[in-house]
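Example record

One chain of 80 residues, shown exactly as stored in the release files.
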Amino acid sequence: MSEMYDPHAAVSVRRTLRGTAIAAVLGFVAYSLAFILNREPSELPRIVVGAFIALAALFTLVWRLVYIRIYTTSGFPVEC
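Predicted structure tokens for this chain:
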């Protein structure tokens, strides 16, 4: 997600969607590996972590789309 902080990428819907999706997939893969490699898989919360990753990705995406919508419209008042 670090490339999403580039100003040119921050206003691109396509790059925002791609960056958020990549971050969510990496989160799911990392947790899946931790779950597989853990000796006691019943000790790890499955649904809660999956829901957290999904909701974090959703809220990040929504916030970034709102940001793009607000700061790329010409009607946004900017005072100097």
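Notes: The mean pLDDT is 81.
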